[in-house]
Design goal:
Distance between the termini: 33 Å
Structural class: alpha+beta
Largest sheet: 8 strands, antiparallel, barrel
Radius of gyration: 19 Å
Shape: elongated
Order of helices and strands: HEEEHEEEEE
Length: 181
Amino acid sequence: MKRLVLMSAVLFFTGFASAQKYSTKTGNVTFEASVPLFEDVYAKDDNNVVILNADSGEMASVSVVKNFHFKTKLMEEHFNESYAETAKYPKATFKGKIANFDKTKLSASPQKYTVQGTLNFHGVDKAVTSAATVYAKDGKIYMQGSFMARPVDHNVTIPKMVTKKVAENVKVEYNYVMAKQ
């Protein structure tokens, strides 16, 4: 039995090690939920962790929700305590795949791809499709794109007194520079 477990582990890690992995711990993710005539609702996280399997196009990312910073501390406090409930839901994750990704076709010229996967925010999984631009330069893979998310789809309750100050559709943008591991 030990021998079977050991052989399984060796085979698993051999496949894992042979895959070309690219990653970053300083990915940039922003979101904006601003509406005209009210204060900007904009936050940024510069510590998004991303891993890309360049052989398959599969990718995953994790943000510590408290790492999203707003221009005012009060807005950040309300976001963490009332909306995102970061004590209960500390992380936002994405698991997905870059459709038709072929690392051999990457060049310094940006190419358009579609990224499909599942965003987990506030404990709720939701399918997401994103348009992304990907290119390679100096041994790194660069990726940027955006998608729309709706707070209501993630069971985020916006108090009635501020519903007109927060957009129903939140624009999420990401920008990654990933190095080979």
